[in-house]
Design brief:
The chain is built from two helices and no strands. By secondary structure, the chain is mainly α. The protein starts with a helix and ends with a helix.
Length: 53
């Protein structure tokens, strides 16, 4: 819930942010392989963009 509120606040102030919420399956051990791959891809994309800026 805190992450949602924080994202909404950033949006309110027109600040850039990256937010993704997994609503099905869970995270870590509760996620299936497709969800885990998607999460890793998002993490690597974020890190790559931060390193390239």
């Amino acid at each position: 819930m805190h992450a949602r509120k924080f994202a909404a606040r950033l949006e309110e102030f027109h600040k850039p942010f990256f937010y993704d919420e997994i609503v099905e399956g869970g995270h870590a051990a509760g996620a299936n392989l497709k969800e885990q791959a998607n999460t890793r891809a998002e993490q690597y994309t974020y890190l790559t963009r931060k390193l390239m800026d």
